[in-house]
Design a protein that fits this description.
The chain is α+β, with helices and mostly antiparallel strands. The chain is built from three helices and 13 strands. The strands form three sheets. Strands 2, 3, 5, 6, 7, 8, 10, 11 and 12 form a nine-stranded antiparallel β-sheet that branches. It is globular, with a radius of gyration of 22 Å. The termini are far apart. The C terminus is likely disordered.
Amino acid sequence: MKLPKGWRKLVWPLLLALLVLGILAGVYIYRNYFRPTGRWALFAELRANPQTFARYTLQPGQRCGDAPFAFPTRGVILGLWDQSFRLGHRHAGVDIFSGTQPGITPVYAAYPGYLTRQADWRASVIIRIPSDPLQPGRQVWTYYTHLANQDGQSFIAEEFPPGTEEVYVEAGTFLGYMGNYSGDPGAPTGLHLHFSVVKDEDGEFLNELDIRNTYDPSPYFGLALNHRDNPTEIPLCEGASTIEPWELRDASD
């Protein structure tokens, strides 16, 4: 079937326009969903030269102003709540990078509560907080994960073996060491602690993978930890800050 004579002249301009639109759409999708964000791309630089990020490094036990939660580990926050790393993904917590190696950087409870480690959890613990400090009477949960190496060797403290249920822990309780476990030995995640504040329903924690089941952690730490309010800057506690007298542990203990 031949096109009418007048239409033939439009074929190439239309094809060119479609090609340009396709390229622009591809660039948009890559920049917004596949290319690491500026903050995420800093991970390699952090590993190569941690001193570059010294001013952004938050300390375990550090509390910004009158925020209810103390910082649970030493590191730089390079992943924020509601940040997208790929198409259709919304990050449900914050990612804290230490720039060290698996099994070196200690992780502590940010707030007191009741710790559970399900029987099949190699790298995760969750702590029930009966009364949310921001909304007393509402129950919330704090979730800590990637506490194992890429082969699944757990770095969780021996005090919390698989199957642990409802063990009371104070703020500053040693939970384990930061790791890079992703659940797939062939695809380890970068070394970091993933921390989230999880909603409660009928006394149980909801699925943390769905951001709708989590709360923005910003007000709990007194920092802009959501991507909407802080799309470019590395979070930094610039106001009044205190550090709790936790007994810091390292790999030599």
